[in-house]
Structures are given as C-alpha cells and as structure tokens.
Amino acid sequence: PKNLKLAAALELDGYFIVGYIGTHGMAHGLSNVLDASDMLAPDSKTKFLLVGRGAEKEALVSEAERRGLDSVVFVSAQTKDQIQDYWSLCDVALVHLKDSPTFKTVIPSKTFEAMAMALPLIIVAPKGGEVRRIVDEGGVGICVDAGDPAALARAAMELESDPVRRGLLQRTS
Questions:
Q1: I need a surface site. Which of 16, 100, 108, 167 has the fewest CB within 10 A?
Q2: Mean pLDDT of the chain
Q3: Which of left, alpha, beta for 11 (phi over 0: left; psi -120 to 50: alpha)?
Q4: Residues of the chain with pLDDT > 70: what percent?
Q5: pLDDT band per the 50, 70, 90 thresholds, residue 9
Q6: Angle at alpha carbon of residue 90, lines to 6 and 142, rounded to 5°
C-alpha cells in the first residue's frame, strides 16, 4: 500500500507519480526526464520522482531548479529498507538508459524490483535492447526510445489518463 505519510511529507498527494529509483549517473541520461517534464500538458498531474545519488545528481537538481520544474522531485539516496516505501508512492516505474549501443545488453535491476511491486513500467532504452524485449514480451510496460523526451512525456501522460491500461500492465504473477 501507498505510504501516505511519506507522500504527504514529499507533497505528492493527488499526483500521478512516475518514479525512478537508482543511480543518477552518466549511463542513465536523466536530463531526458527534465526535458520530458517541460513537455507535459499544462493540466497534467504527473510528477517525476527521482530517488538516489550519482555523478549527475547535482547537475540535474541545479538544472531543474534553473528551469523552475516543479514536476520533478528529487530525493536523496535511501537505505534498502526504505526503498519499498518510495516504490509504494509510484503509479509507474521509470527505467532509464541513455542512447548508446553499449546499453542494448544492460538489464537494470530496478526493472525486476518494479515488476515485483506490480508497477507498470516506462522503459527508456536504445532500440533493440534486452530490457525492452523483456518488458514487451511480459506485457508489463511501455518502451520508448532513449533520447526522445517527447515520447517519454507522451507515455507518462498516456498512463496517467488511462487507468485501465495501467491495470493491464500490472502483472502480479
């Protein structure tokens, strides 16, 4: 169940949460999330929740502040026993890799964490990648091309507005 106390503390009550939990590093291309948040519809209730640390975190926070992006919420790294509480806030899990042939064979462990939490996924990864194959074959998410913030924004808004589709993507077995 959703951790209501944590949602209130982070001022996330009433929002549709697309959550990324993990390293904010060079391999992840998370500046794409900032660009996507700029493209959300004005009436969108979507917020991107980014939990973790990494080499790119400080630059991402600074850039989000510079742009005045209130649809992106950053939280510092949490202990393993707290992670489930952050996953509980998410309506959709975001798995994000940058556009590089190197990442076609990468399967981020957060993919399986999110699947274990029965969360629909948005996968941002290179075309033809292994994680995209797993998600497509399992019918557990939407895959979009890495480096395409408009596609990420569309996927988030589509899942925000379509609870039936979200329900179909929530696999519990």
A1: 167
A2: 94
A3: left
A4: 98
A5: very high
A6: 170
- Residue with token string 């941002």: 124
Report the predicted TM-score, pTM, of the whole model to 2 decimal places. Answer: 0.95
Instruction: Measure the CA angle with vertex 65, ends 75 and 30; round to 5°.
Output: 60
Say which amino acid occupies 44. S
CA distance 82 to 79: 5
**Confidence band for 135, pLDDT divided at 50, 70 and 90:** very high
Contact 142, 166 (CB under 8 A): no
- pLDDT of amino acid 154: 97
Q: Is the pLDDT of residue 66 over 90?
A: yes
Nearest to 97 by CA among 74, 121, 119, 123: 123
Cα gap 62→45, rounded to integer Å: 23
CB 73, CB 50: distance < 8 Å: yes
Give the tokens for residue 25. Answer: 């590093």
